[in-house]
Amino acid sequence: SGVFVLIQQASLRQKQRSHQYTSVHSSRNPFVRRSFGNRSKSMITLRIAILVCTILHLGHSFATKSPTRTASSPRTNEMSRLSATTFGSVSSSASASTPLRVAIIGGGAAGLVTARVMKRNGIEPTVFEKDSREAGVGGVWSYKPNSKSRPMYRGLRTNLPRELMAYREFPWGGDGKTMSFVTHNEVKDYLSKYSKAMGVEDLIRYRSTVTQLEILQNDEKKIENDDGGGIEGDDSSWPRIKLEWESMMGGPNNSDDEKTSHSEVFDAVCVCNGHYAAPANPIIPGIEDFKGKIIHSITYDDPSVFEGETVLCVGGRASGADLAREISHFAKHVYLSDTTCPALTDGKPVAEENVSWVPRTTAVLPNSSRISFGPSCEETPEVDTIIFCSGYDYQFPFINERSNLDLSVVTGERRVKPLYEQLWHAQYPSLAFIGLQHSVVPFPFFELQAEAVASQLAGDSGDSASRPWTLPPLENRMECAEKDANSGGPKEPGRVQDTHFLGSFQWEECLKYARFAGVCDEDLKKYIMTNKAIYDHSGEARKNLFPGGPDTYRYNSYIRDNENESFQAIPLQQKMGVEGIPEPLSSGSEVHAN
């Protein structure tokens, strides 16, 4: 009885000092464990008392031969319900302790899967989403008619088949009879179903905009009024992170909305805010004197507004080609300006119907609406509207001089540094950036990045043969980050703006993140290689088409064959509407194979 009195007294003193936390650590990962701050005398007394009590209890248990019971971890129970893919093993320390708390900024495709993976790893996620509950999840896939701040437009259809646009444990499926290239509404519906099926919906704080991120650098004064804890590591590189955010109360269209400010401290933060919010406009000599209209593709929605116009689309990648195609059904003529345009041997651009493929736009001629495409092109057409289909810059408005960290994001460079493996902040890996890379198969790529981050945070020891990796020391991380930032990306020759480009290089990155997470088994390798096979097939079909011309590559239905790292591609008949415009096909509608 004296022991229990001692425990009560010590416990009372400790509770008066701070909230009590239980350690979370891994013998294989010394970076990840709960921090108790200074070891007070009361805590030492408490631990001694608990140890004595435990010894006495064990002695009594052995004497009476009473059976003991071991509770299964929540993550073990969760994993037992998964039927498709085997994920990482359960951390006994994480499941038995107070979970780490991780903030996720953004409720789009990256944020949702990050929340799901964190939850499955015994980590407590909180998702901050600026849209309303009525608008739902989806991020950029949430279409709003005539929006000037979202890249989604009414006629958008994916340029990747749905068999790739899926998370591993939530396959989209395909039957060979329906169109694999789906609409934005169908993608949003898929994400909504995923959020509900995986228990992510209840983790989202809607109408909450993060306004400030601050690294606390393990400063006890800064965290003495919160609930304690933290993640320790070499050179204090796993600090806790404070977020400030604003929430809106009331209905989504209510003019009486009340804005309230909040702050909270988290063990880690995953930035999943995407990179489609800050339009990148190219520098074109004379553009300031252009007499016509200039817009960015982020404001595009309805092609009929260009009826009878001559339109220039600057940028020939996915958005440029798709917009040129849509607009050509209404415009008088469309010019698609692209650096990959073949050399013009006779000064005339390559053209199909009313779409001309021209070289890079070099200038707007003085006091006019005429455009020059360089000395190789004789045409200098007079243009009514210029649409910049030139991509986006990275933007993190909540990271600034108050954030206590070094993060370089220069407009026009399209490069974020210093990042280790283009995922973790090199100095403070309790801050991760998921989904920065472009030209990738996004959903499964985000999923593997989230697995890698969760593995480090949870400290999941796993099988020594499959999970041997932990983050290297600070000096190594900084050195690798600097080298990566100056590499110019994987292509030769490299360019600063291609730092986060992957394309055909993404598959090794997927395998690397899987190895980091300890989930790189044979089934996953086959899954990734099947993705590659389908990606290469659809990409080759797209490459052989005239940009801005008919998108016949989309009229295929794919069936995956993971076991053989292969697929079936079944061509479908293209239904034509009025005036030869392709009639929209719902992926859920029956279409007939040729």
Textual characterization of the structure:
With 594 residues, the chain is of the alpha/beta class. Among the domains are: 2-64, no CATH class; 282-390, 3-Layer(bba) Sandwich (FAD/NAD(P)-binding domain), CATH 3.50.50. 26% of the residues lie in helices and 16% in strands. It is built from twelve helices and 24 strands. It has helices spanning 2-17, 41-64, 74-79, 92-96, 109-120, 184-197, 220-223, 318-328, 442-458, 474-485, 506-517, 522-543; strands at 101-105, 124-128, 204-205, 208-215, 241-249, 258-266, 268-271, 278-279, 293-296, 310-314, 333-337, 350-352, 355-358, 363-364, 371-372, 385-388, 392-393, 408-409, 416-417, 419-420, 424-425, 431-433, 556-561, 566-571. It has a six-stranded mixed sheet with strand order 9-16-10-11-13-12, covered by helices on one side. Strands 3-2-1-7-22 form a five-stranded parallel sheet, with helices on one face. A hairpin with a 2-residue loop joins strand 12 (350-352) and strand 13 (355-358). The protein is globular and about 70 Å long. The protein starts with a helix and ends in a 23-residue tail after the last strand.
- Tally of helical segments: 12
Average predicted confidence as pLDDT:
79
How do the strands line up in the largest sheet? 9-16-10-11-13-12
CATH class of the domain at 282-390: Alpha Beta
Q: Quick one: overall form?
A: globular
Helix content: 25-40%
Uncertain segments are 1-46, 52-86, 88-96, 220-235, 460-468, 576-581, 584-594
Q: Please tell me how large the radius of gyration is.
A: 27 Å
CATH topology of the domain at 282-390: FAD/NAD(P)-binding domain
First-residue to last-residue Cα separation: 84 Å
Major beta-sheet overview: 6 strands, mixed
Query: What's the oligomerization state?
Result: single chain
Q: Please state the second-level CATH architecture of the domain at 282-390.
A: 3-Layer(bba) Sandwich
Beta content comes to 15-25%
